[in-house]
Amino acid sequence: MATLVNLRNLLEHEIEDLYSAEEQIIEALPAMADSATNRELKKALKEHLRITKEQKRRLDQVKKILRKDSSEEGDAGFLERMFGGGGTKCKGMEGLIKEGKKVMDEDMEPSVRDAAIIASSQKIEHYEISGYGTAKAYAKQLGLREVERILATTLKEEYTADKMLNTLALSNVNLKAERGSASKAAAKSPAKKAVPKKASATKSASRKMAAR
Prior knowledge:
- The protein is mainly alpha-helical.
- The protein has a single domain, classed as Ferritin, core subunit, four-helix bundle (Ferritin, Up-down Bundle).
- Helices cover 81% and strands 0% of the residues.
- The protein is built from 7 helices and no strands.
- The longest helix has 44 residues, at 145-188.
- It is elongated, with a radius of gyration of 29 Å.
- The N and C termini lie far apart (107 Å).
- 29% of the residues are buried.
């Protein structure tokens, strides 16, 4: 890895990290969408795949701007070392995706799986919010207005996606997961036998009436 000597280098490193994260998300999202049973969740994941591909394209644009800016300043060497080869894999995103896959491989009721998918998706969103927010702050400090604007667009989308997932979980998915767990537990419980009502009081009353 190239030595980071200033904030500009740190921004370039953050962009490389985000680029790798987006690549991994694009690879993982189709399986998450296929695993979801809730119609709204499935639709949201497929839509976010489309958005993520656009976010990756924006990062390509950011890299071009940074290359051009560095070339004009005669300092393109560091950028070539950062972006010129295959780059490094974002270990943070790799870990989140592996954790999510491990959870989804568990034996779960469909409604519970949907809730788990949302939880995994929100962890990913929070990682991206942190990364894009940091990169945007660096770009602002460095006076890279176009880079800041591009990153702000993606950051806004990540906040929107997280809010949508939260709403979906609280308004629908978590409730179904709760009921699914209760219904499964009830199904396992042995049914109680009906206890016949005692007829002794009725017979006693009949005898008294007959005696009169």
